[in-house]
Amino acid sequence: MSPKITTELLKQLRQVMKNPRYVQEPVQAYIVPSGDAHQSEYIAPCDCRRAFISGFDGSAGTAIITEQHAAMWTDGRYFLQAAHQMDSNWTLMKMGLKDTPTQEDWLVSVLPEGSKVGVDPFIIPADQWKRMSKALRSAGHDLVPVKENLINTIWTDCPQRPCKPLITLDLSYTGVSWRDKIVALRSKMAERKVMWFVVTALDEVAWLFNLRGSDVEYNPVFFAYAVIGMNTIRLFIDGDRMMDPAVRDHLQLDSTLEPEFKIQVMPYGSILSELQAVGAGLSPKEKVWLSDKASYALTEAIPKAYRYLTPYTPICIAKAVKNAAETEGMRRAHIKDAVALCELFNWLEKEVPKGTVTEIVAADKAEEFRSQQKDFVELSFATISSTGPNGAIIHYKPVPETNRTLSVNEIYLLDSGAQYKDGTTDVTRTMHFGTPSAYEKECFTYVLKGHIAVSAAIFPNGTKGHLLDSFARSALWDCGLDYLHGTGHGVGSFLNVHEGPCGISYKTFADEPLEAGMIVSDEPGYYEDGSFGIRIENVVLVIPAETKYNFKNRGSLTFEPLTLVPIQTKMIDVNLLTEKECNWVNEYHQKCREVVGAELERQGRHEALRWLLRETEPLARVQ
Amino acid sequence: MSPKITTELLKQLRQVMKNPRYVQEPVQAYIVPSGDAHQSEYIAPCDCRRAFISGFDGSAGTAIITEQHAAMWTDGRYFLQAAHQMDSNWTLMKMGLKDTPTQEDWLVSVLPEGSKVGVDPFIIPADQWKRMSKALRSAGHDLVPVKENLINTIWTDCPQRPCKPLITLDLSYTGVSWRDKIVALRSKMAERKVMWFVVTALDEVAWLFNLRGSDVEYNPVFFAYAVIGMNTIRLFIDGDRMMDPAVRDHLQLDSTLEPEFKIQVMPYGSILSELQAVGAGLSPKEKVWLSDKASYALTEAIPKAYRYLTPYTPICIAKAVKNAAETEGMRRAHIKDAVALCELFNWLEKEVPKGTVTEIVAADKAEEFRSQQKDFVELSFATISSTGPNGAIIHYKPVPETNRTLSVNEIYLLDSGAQYKDGTTDVTRTMHFGTPSAYEKECFTYVLKGHIAVSAAIFPNGTKGHLLDSFARSALWDCGLDYLHGTGHGVGSFLNVHEGPCGISYKTFADEPLEAGMIVSDEPGYYEDGSFGIRIENVVLVIPAETKYNFKNRGSLTFEPLTLVPIQTKMIDVNLLTEKECNWVNEYHQKCREVVGAELERQGRHEALRWLLRETEPLARVQ
Hints:
Chains A, B: It is an enzyme of class 3 (hydrolase). The structure is a homodimer. The first copy, chain A, is 33% helix and 20% strand.
């Protein structure tokens, strides 16, 4: 891929940074964060402002443009991709490396005295605003909200904000009605003595009302806010989506309801003024609950004394703990997903030696097989279909310029997933269609050992996921190897493939404790720039563990893999596995055989079934 | 031990809380933190205010007294001890348990509206003040500094602040002169563009000037502050200690020196007014560097805009990385310490069956053997000599009321250490002088597996210690067991046995990365209330590790045990060890034999040598 040429765009941006039509006073720096007004990770095309200005379109990154400089902060997953996509106007700031300055420190080092740093107050989360504003102020600069988004002023062909039809989910999928979710939320509000709760994250709005949308690719969400009072429900949403009889019926918009369950539908754009009105009408001690990641603009709408900010909202926490209906749905979705991948890998095994399968062809084929499954909606993220050196680009997405042909000489890494109406999947398998080298097998086996160490870990109730991260790295560390990303993220139930508040990463400390019913990914990896990438990822469910003893009656937890796709035994150096690890692989493969085998049989996919049986032969350890 | 009766004291305290002689306005609550004006963990008798008012004398705990309540917050190490030492006036707040309120939340729940909460501004660290003040203010209360310490007003027989002679350490012990330390500090100050650095922690003053004292039991420190400017050095210290010719010579007080190395000696009590004078004389951009744990009183002496606060000071970080002279000193100290313990355990093995050895006798005997070693100064903490159920009291100290007799039927846990002029030791061994039960051996072996998992861990340069904590727990977790304390702490070099900024604990996230030369303890445990305690502790040195590969050229680290005392093989269930763990034990014991054996031989301690040889016979694993 060739970098985006941004010289002209940066020139234009630097002009509007001084243009009194847009800024009260000139700003010497302008921050372009990744997110949208809902602090989403995946965003609609109209919100891809950072990609527009820089060319770098990874899922995480913050651009800062000053009069002299343009710099991009991103993390280890994207170092290579960002370097490829940005032209020489840009400096790449590699987060997580020792010598990389923070955005604040860098700004202080490059700005002239008494500078103004602008940012769109709807895009920057309140907690980031606070941190950055404080750091800048202490160095004599000012962070200022710029009402009109300056990227939008130069983005002449900016696409429209999407407004697609909604999907209603009944109890068989959600397990709990939206009314009961509102009741539970109000009881949490009463516990904390707050009168209002502002729902700003798109997946939280979708989860709360048991609705799904398709405004954002891969994430079944729709643009909306909600404000829940103890006796009122306000839903801020645009378009004619509320005219759909199924939606009206689902939300009981035309029924005679107790007033506290009557949903008032309001225009999406009116959230700020409505929230300001709420803020102005508060009596002493009436608090308003917001995520501390809500936008600065909405947070400021509530006078400071009335704000109740928490890192995780009660919806975020409730959503993370899947109920029986959701768990069963996730199980079904993962079985269907495994069927599709067995078909794919069987097909690849036959086709790759012919030299006609490119990364894009393979990704498309994966989507084709998935789309044949019941209740398939769309992919859950852009398929990472990468072979050879492309595998080392952790969040690689094949495009024509980089598209490599799969061969029997290179490792192939496929990280893919789908949205089904009953669940969300996310699975990575690393395969070799020829004969892997001893070194490739060695590295693969260390990654597998790490994967198993997490998946089979037993830990006390109340343990935070970050305490498990080192388990995934231990085998790699022993040989001087490592990987520069976290080990796991929360996974939604027919919702975002990345969700809080739990995960498995050395980078966070503020994650919520794991509890039974939570679903996370387990995905250690190993990457060699310029040669190959290895990752083994399952989605796993937190379940109670039976243990010999039970210290302080705390109880223990462990994981059950929901993903049931064979791990290529050809890539395993069995002699590096312990007996316990070897048994884990064999038991996992036995379960794949039984559960996915039965579904392949039912669907009459006999060739894929034969592939599955062949790929799940037990490993034999040499003693 | 029977609890301290505090009814009368609490009544007196509640009176002075309203007495206009001491408080401008009545305070409805008074906080009594653990520390002294230097935020020390170990404190002088005159600073044991929390123990005086409550009876609880563990090393960590905060008391809060309101008009109606008296509550004590402490952590898992002290739940049992605090419960034993406090009378029914007190409520024990078990930190770390889910339902325990924070001090702030509890205050808000019990205080009448608009209350004032008092605290001694010299005792409360600035970061705690800030957090608590904010929480109270948002609930309509006020945290107020009370100049006169209210405990002192009712503590009629409060002991005098100690003022003992100083010890000077030459280059053979410290490796770096105090002048060179000042030069290095000033270069760190220049890097951060600060003009002044305030040394508030006692061990930092001692380390900086290569002096030691004995004002605080177990910690070779002395009451002093220092204020280092780019061209000035001020040392705040009382008594005639500066009249000692050795000290005068060491500090070159009577030499003609470049002015920037001339030490101005000032009275200890003048620190606040001197610092206020510094604060008043600052030009714009002249910053003053303080630890964010410095007292609120000293922090407030510097106007906010001029403060530069960090969680760890440059002295704290430099002090943690031991140089060659310090490392060699620590090695020597640990060999001498092992000699003493070999003597002790050999003696115990003979004496325990007679039924005459109590916990106190054993502790005294340990001190006796240690005091026979060269350069012995004192113990490094109160010896934890505990048998049977007393072993489950994690920071137990035997007193006549609780003193149990060692027997062949109970586990004995000895956690002890000493200050030698060349180094500080801290070692825990858990022994059985009869025949341990299968269950005791099982638990011991899990703890041993955790100890080895940390000690043998290989991890990348730049890894923080908290990422290793779970390794110590994994074997226990597998069986549903755990322990409620961290796994390791930094250890000083003839300094405090607990020091920052590194450690191995699930509780902290702000530790500094481990680097070669740092020294920490590795001490997992397992405790059953009412029956026994197990802990295996070595002090270990961070050293570079040789690895097969070297990802991103980061380099790897591992640990080398400095403690060389046999781990009782009788307590090990060999069948629960992996081959690798078994080899670790055998190699460790081989090193004990060689290194400590040679020293026992040299000292002519032949019986203890025979004991060592017997106790370090290799384990044989049944295949």
